[in-house]
Structure formats: structure tokens, C-alpha cells
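Researcher: Sequence of Integral membrane protein follows. Predict its structure.
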Amino acid sequence: MSQQGTPDRGPTAHHPNGWAQALATVAATLAALIVTAALGVWAAGAAALPGSAFPRVVAAVVVMAVGGSVDVSGDAGGIAAARAELTALPLSVTLAGALVLAAGFLRPLRHRAVVGTRELVARAARIALLWTLALLALALFARQSFAVRPGGTVSDIGELLGVDAPRAGFRADVPLTVVLGLLWLAALLLITLAVSRAAPLPGALLRYQEPVRPAAHAMVVLLLVCVGVGAAVGIVVAATRGKPAETLAVMLLGLPNLTWLALTLGMGATWDGKVEGPFGLPVPRLLEQVLRAPDGGVVNLGTLAEYDGRVRWLPVAAAVLLLGAAYLMAVRSPARTRLWQHAVRMAAALVLTVLMICLAVRFEARYGLSLFGIGDLGGGLSAEAALSPRLWSALGLAALWGLATGCLGGLLARSARRRGGTPPLRDRGPGE
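Model: Prediction complete. C-alpha cells:
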């Protein structure tokens, strides 16, 4: 039974073309993922890779963007070997696919006040089945190997002993990619239902709408605004400082990685990382300078300010953005909500958001070439790059920021309501 007492007639009663809608949603999501990844990889120069590898690199980037696993490996016969590891999320690609998938999932549900649990499950199941097939195709296609041209010691000894040229390659882990890709889909659909004010919910979940949806919506707006600000800065940099292709590659592959990292730094978080060897990171030169510190890079406001004092404005920017998110949450909450509830909900939402940022932005990449299993002798082919957060301090700072801005946002919303500027949530229609 639905909330109005009418029987739940199931998904087919309302949407006989459910499979067509699911197919359109998955196809549009794949198109957004592939186009964004292809443009980013092209701007990064991967179109010149040998062996017609470009489309397979694009497939690998898409696999990583949806949480899949890509293994990097190499070898050079029986007496030489290459080792490699790569853990990273191209969040620009992830975000493009997530926005399209969320829109496609919500579109058939618009103008509905309540939806049955069976209908939601059926819609999600159809999308999940088609998404599984897409993941299988991507994972099977995302594999390639390349010949590596070493220099220095390995090249000399290899020629002397007749060792084959070393090769490096990548291969998607098919079972793990399917499992992680389905988890990504499930998490995205849950977030979509939590964020959207217009999306109907089953009657049993309506009581969670008031405490969850305003905070979840505010966090998504916060993250998107950060990306929008970063995009504006990137356009200015590309237009005024040269190297537009490199800037475009960063924007199309890792813009959220940088902007969300900057948000946590503005909140006072500290990240640990390092860069050794010839890695060319798609990050601002300021961040790379800190990461290449001889004793390892500690990335926070203090270390960044040693190279560029303008980063001291990051806390101001973070304060403005967080206060704006807290105000948005408060005005979308019922007028009866107390200040301490605004503060607690903002703190909880911000802690979860920062946790997501810490897990998604961290990266690790290693490459090493050895002969006879002894050392890294690659004459510049040994390299390592990593960045990881100091998690518990970042979450603690997020809780403090959330409590403070949640309280202030509640006060601002209360003042706006007294002036008659914003009606309470309970006075609005269900489709607004």
C-alpha cells in the first residue's frame, strides 16, 4: 500500500517502458564517462601512444573512474622485471558520469509525491543489470602493453646480455571491477535519493526526509561549487599562462581532486605525500614543489605558504563556502528545527563529506625496473608518487567546522524567515 492507501501497483503500472528508460540512462552515463575520459586523455597526449592504445587507455580511465581496479605490470624476460602500482580516481570523469546517471534515474520519478519500494528496487535492478554488462565490456577491453625504452645501466647491460626490451602494461581486474562498479552504482543511487528534494520516497522512509535531505543537498552543492570555482580558475590559467592542453587535461581528469583537496586544506587538514623520479603530476606546480621535498612532503597551509603566500586565503574561502552550505541546509529545513540540530546535522554531513574526499582524492603510483632482481637500476625509470590524508585530524576538524557553521547558518536562516524571505520547508509543495 502507498502512503495514500492506494495499492502499490508496481513499476510496470506507471512505466511500461522501464527497460528502455534504464537502457537510455546507462547509455547516457557511459557516453558522459567515455567522452570526458577521451578528451582528458587526448589533452594529456595519450593519442600518440603506440599500438592504437588510445581507446584502451580511455577504457581503463573509465574503469578507474567508477571504482574499478586496473593492475599495472611489466617484464623484460627472465632476468629483468618491471614493477608498477597505481591507485587513483579521475574524479572529473567520475563526476560527469554520476551527474548523468542521477538525472536519468530521477527523470521518470518527477512529479510523483510517493513511490513504492518495489518500484524503486525494480528500477535500480534494471539499471544494475545493464550496468554490469557495461562494466564487463569495459573491463575486458581495458588492457594493453607497451615497450619501454630504458636508459642508463639497464639499457647498457640489457644490450650486452641480449635481454628483451622491458614492457609495461595495464589490465583491468574483471571480477573486482564488476563488484566495485556495482557498489559505486548502489552508493550513487542512494546518494541521489538522499539529495534530491523532488524525488519521491517510499512511505516508510519519509520520516528520514527532514533530517537527511537538506544536509545531503547542501553537501552536494558545496562540492559542485568547489568544482565550478576550480573550473573558472582553470580557464583563466589556460588563457593567460600558456600550456592550455595540460590545463585542460587536469580539468577533464582531476579537477575535483584538486578543488576538494583545497577545501580540506582550507579547513586545516594535513596530507602526507612525496614525489620521487620523473613522474609528471597533473597538479599545480606549488603542490608538486611541496611533494618533492627531500624528506617527504607534508602538505598543509604552512608548507604551501612557504612557496606562495596566497594560499592563506584558503581558510577564508572555506569559511564562506561552508557557511553558505550551512545556510542552504537551514533554509531547506523546517522552521521548527533548533539551532543545535542544525549544528549536529551540518557536522555529521561535513564529516561524511570529508571522509569521502579523503578516500577519493588520495593516490599512489610506483614504477621500478630491476635487473637480476637487484635494486632499481632504471636510470630514471624508478619513480614514486603518493598523497594520503591524516584522516582522524581531518574528520575532527570537519566536525568542528560543521558545528560552528551549522549554528551560524541556522541563525542566518532564522533571521531570513523573520524578514519573510524564506518560507519553511513544510509550507512548500512536494514537487518543489
